[in-house]
Amino acid sequence: MKTFEMLESNVRSYCRSFPVVFDKAKGDQLYADTGEAYIDFFAGAGALNYGHNNEFMKSKIMEYVSQDRIMHGLDMYTKAKEDFIVSFSEHILKPQSLDYKLQFCGPTGTNAVEAALKLARKVKGRTGVFAFMGGFHGMSLGSLSITSSNSMRESAGMPLNNVTFIPYGQSFEGLDTIRYMEHILSDTHSGVGKPAAMILETVQAEGGIHVAEIEWLQSLRQLCDEHDILLIIDDIQVGCGRTGPFFSFERAGIVPDIVILSKSISGYGLPMSLLLIRPELDIWSPGEHNGTFRGNQLAFVTAKAALEFRTAERLGEQVREKEAFIKYYLQNEIAPLDANLKIRGIGMIWGIDVSHLGEEVAREITANCFKNGLILERAGRNDTVIKIMPPLTISIENLKRGCEIIAESFSRVGHTFSH
Questions:
Q1: Which helix (H) or strand (E) holds 261?
Q2: How many beta carbons lie within 10 A of that of residue 102, not counting itself?
Q3: Cβ distance 131 to 201 under 8 Å?
Q4: Residue 256 to residue 204: CA distance in whole angstroms
Q5: I need a labelling partner for 228 at 20 to 30 A (CA). Which of 126, 237, 378, 402 fits?
Q6: Average pLDDT, whole number, for the chain?
Q7: pLDDT digit string (tens) for 45-80?
Q8: What digits encode the pLDDT tens for the residues 289-327?
Q9: Taking Cα atoms as reference points, which of 43, 27, 28, 49 lies closest to residue 264?
Q10: Does residue 417 register a pLDDT over 80?
Q11: Residues 6+ apart with CB under 8 A from 387
């Protein structure tokens, strides 16, 4: 690791929590160059919903490359792109009667967020945006402006304006947040102008695994309709089946105006992002939001394969079964360890909130997990939420073993828990 420490920038982060040199990965496990195996409860920060080196997707890549197919295409018409668009429409949009146009952005999620903000402001002719406390949307300037973490915002090195932050969820210490927003929007002396859009994650992942209530999401959709505000759902981390259905907002029966997808949309960990836009909002001029790598051809190939794999393997049903296991285990084996632990989650994204114990204890627990063959990260305020996010394809055996390692690590930190 001396090479990395000497030559790689200090900005590196995940490697500090997982200080080994990884060399191989398959399914739900990663392997260090020493051969040591680690169960993956991290899934590439949500980019590997279908596991590492999925055989079906890998075969499609090998076939495509072996035929000297187009590898770089900007936004030109290509067969790989056409095949993905048709497949996405047939597998995802048509079954739910969703009418969206697809915009392929630069390959990172934050680039798609930037595009969504630009388009919303262009459509509505307003500069303001409502975002939510605890939200994370990326590290480029526009995305940072709607990200609430003070330390992340400070990294911008300049003011981040035109955003109003609202408490997340149905109530905040007795505050009805929908009524609060209604008051802001209706009061001529609120001091806040009508925004072009509201943007949110239906499950705040980096914010500490906070799951928005269905009623609140429905009320938010109604509020946006009543006040001519666009509703943007950032489904970068919790979309693509993470909560069970393909989109995280399906459980609320709402239709956003703009949906942002990245991370697991390619299915194989390849860079890719896109916007889903209601057709009447697609008022871009040609090239108004572009990028050299807005057409990752290999990602199109694996993204199409991922949709086929999801259908063939009935992945939505698998997520529901594994969700039941995770929920039961956390509530019956982890929660009793300390009366003050809070368990939150949905589908296959869960958090164990140890904020009452502090950041150091949370760090000790996850470090101990790593020493015993489990990779997982921390999230939330002060990084005090232990985040469980394995590939959707993880075996029940490794899912159980990973949960057992967490339980064992709680006992190993030597803290006196409250019962």
A1: strand 258-261
A2: 16
A3: no
A4: 17
A5: 237
A6: 96
A7: 999 999 999 999 999 999 999 999 999 999 999 999
A8: 999 999 899 999 999 999 999 999 999 999 999 999 999
A9: 49
A10: no
A11: 41, 205, 209, 349, 350, 351, 376, 377, 378, 379
134: helix, coil or strand? coil
3-state SS record for 293-349? CCCEHHHHHHHHHHHHHHHHCCHHHHHHHHHHHHHHHHHHHHHHHCCCCEEEEECCE
Distances (CA, A) of 322 to 42, 49, 220, 277, 315: 16, 13, 30, 32, 10
CATH numbers and ranges of domains, the chain:
2-54+314-412 (3.90.1150.10), 58-312 (3.40.640.10)
Read off the tokens for 315: 């992945």
User: Token pair of 329, please?
Assistant: 């285990």
Q: Residue 358 has what pLDDT?
A: 94
* CA 231 – CA 132 distance, rounded (Å): 13
Give pairs for 10-17: CB < 8 Å, separation 24+.
Answer: 14/45, 14/377, 17/366, 17/367, 17/370, 17/377
pLDDT band at 368 (very low <50, low <70, confident <90, very high): very high
Say what percent of the chain tops pLDDT 70.
99
Beta strands in 71-153 (DSSP E): 101-104, 129-132
Q: How do strand 342-346 and strand 377-379 relate by DSSP bridges?
A: unpaired
In the chain, what is the straight-line distance between the N-terminal and C-terminal CA atoms, in Å? 42
- Report the amino acid identity of residue 230: L
Q: Locate 268 and state its tokens.
A: 């194989």
Containing H/E element for 361? helix 359-371
215 burial level (CB within 10 Å; 0-12, 13-18, 19+): exposed
pLDDT digits (tens, 9 = 90+) for 95-132: 999 999 999 999 999 999 999 999 999 999 999 999 99
Alpha-carbon distance 335 to 353, whole Å? 10
pTM: 0.96
CB–CB of 329/343 below 8 Å? Answer: no
pLDDT value of position 418: 63
